[in-house]
Amino acid sequence: MSHKQFISSPANYLSLKYLRVPAFWRPRVSLNDQSFTRHDIIYYWQKWLPSILVRTAVRVVVMICLTAGMLGILASTAPMSHAQAVFPTSVAGNPQLVSTTKRIQNQQTPLKSTALNATVYHSPDCNCCGGWIDHLKAQGFKITDFSTTDIETVKQKYNVPDNLSSCHTAIVNGYVIEGHVPADDIKRLLQEKPNVAGLSVPQMPVGTPGMEMGNRKDPFSVFSFDRNDSVAVFNKYRAES
To answer: Within 10 A of 14 (CB to CB), how many other CB atoms are there?
Structure first.
């Protein structure tokens, strides 16, 4: 390769210039030199520019990846032992996780609040019915009170079985409530929503809401019934004295 051919490449010429090659050895080439015209500069610039850009882009991407990796390692404050404790390979081998799992399983999902609206039908001279209404009001029920002299017609309208009959009849969110049914049983009925027509406490047991007589509480049962007159025990209360 001749001297002129060697310096025909801009890279070779620049290497001679910036690698501190003695000036007497470097050939004198100018842009006005016929052997190294502007067209030559443009040609070599277009030839080498794509490879330079590609190499630069690759280096930038590599540096970004390395920087991101280092920042991720430095930002992590959990040592390996802690990570193994948080993500154990076996649930059975981690008593703390087993205990937490059981606690979550035992928690009941809170039910959405239900409006407690009761329409009560009773005879005008029934004092115990008023006591039961006061009991429901104290438990958050909104009462619509109807006094009627023909309570039997109301019971027939809502298909209350004769053997479950009591002194008053109420409608609570579509369920029939017959007699002195405790408010807690009505709330349970509204939460569980069983396929029944309603609840009943037959007759008027002493100690039921509205039938209080001191500390005396007779045993009684709360029955559920459906539209086919099928009856089942919904809850039981023991005697107290």
So the answer is: 11
**8 or 146, greater pLDDT:** 146
Q: So what's the pLDDT on residue 168? A: 96
Question: Tokens in use for 119?
Answer: 């329409």
Burial of 165 (0-12, 13-18, 19+ CB in 10 A): middle
Q: Model's pTM, two decimal places?
A: 0.54
Q: How many CB atoms lie within 10 A of CB 184?
A: 12
Which one has a higher pLDDT value, 207 or 17?
207
CB 170 within 8 A of CB 120: yes
- Give the right CATH number for 117-237 from 3.20.20.370, 2.40.110.10, 3.30.420.40, 3.40.30.10: 3.40.30.10
CA distance 191 to 94: 36
Burial of 29 (0-12, 13-18, 19+ CB in 10 A): middle
Which strands make up the sheet holding 198-201, listed edge to edge? 142-147, 117-122, 168-172, 175-179, 198-201, 220-225, 231-237
How much of the chain, in percent, has pLDDT values that exceed 90? Answer: 49
Residue corresponding to tokens 């809401």: 209
CB 32, CB 41: distance < 8 Å: no
Q: Three-state DSSP class for 109?
A: coil
Residue 102 confidence class, pLDDT cut points 50, 70, 90: very low
Measured between alpha carbons, how far is residue 126 from residues 80, 94, 199, 210 in Å? 75, 63, 20, 11
Domain ranges of the chain: 3-73, 117-237
